[in-house]
Amino acid sequence: MASEVLTHNIVARYSEEITKGTIESVHFGEQARLKRSLKVAAVCLLVAGVCLCIPGAHFVLVPLTLLVSPFVIYKTHSQATKILKAEIACPKCHKPLSVLSSQEKYPLFENCGACHREIRIDRAA
After folding, report:
1. pTM
2. Which residues of the chain have pLDDT under 50?
């Protein structure tokens, strides 16, 4: 299965106050996840190659890049969903709430940029 974009209904909660909205996310199939992780692996190798050209610093940068690369590749491969955008208002101040989380794992906790309260976001039933 390739990547597919889905839209879900969500609710934002703060104490007893609730607002409703939508979230758009892309779901990656196994083949798309493998493709993304191979791209990340290529970028990591490219960065290590560029670091070879830096005199002196390459003794630290190349091993560091090669040590961090497997972790970054694993995290990229394990990410099955990615949030593209969300349209929802803060339940307290009713200003647009920006969802900064990259992976769609509920509940999401976001801080409102206007009133600075922690808002819980769940998928609507």
Report:
1. 0.72
2. none
